Amino acid sequence: VDYFVAISRHIQEKIESIYQRSADVIYPPVETSKFYVSKEHDEYFLIVSRLNSYKRIDLVIEAFNRLSLPLLVIGTGPHEEILKRNANNNITFLGKVAEKELVGYLSRCRAFIFPGEEDFGIAPVEAMASGRPVIAYGGGGALETVVEGTTGLFFQNKTVEGLIEAIHHFEKMESKFDPIKIRRHAQQFDKEIFKQKIKDYITEKYAHFN
Asked: Which residues, in sequence order, are bridge partners of residue 153?
């Protein structure tokens, strides 16, 4: 391998740790143009995720059981039935939805919940491209896409109590989040920017071999 390209600083650090090699960061493409800012918002919080155990959706289910706030869960996966059995009536599982429906749900949610630790995390960027704030676990790629207090909030303890505390904090400052500013931030991860960066990178590195 001549050059490593990492999808986040989080992965850049892992490459350094495992291979003792430096890597350049180019964030992956997000089709931000598919999403829009809605003038109207509903009362539900939203999760869009593959329902695997490591995604920590169980943590969100327990938190919303205690809070009794409306939560919509979009996605399917092996952990789905367990999550459904543990969920109270304020939590609705929508399964797999059409892309147009997904865009609508994202644009109207009160906030997007992202409890896992991902290498980058496309879904939070899609939510921000819809102008919606993100409540995310403070680890992994989310630390590079979500801006504390501007485009969302972090919870540091991956516990039910930690998430509940973050939601209470969000409720106190919800009106301060500017949907247009949030969307503008997300657009730096647009696929057209990715295409240009990866093209420039390959052109520059390839020139070294000529």
From this structure: 135
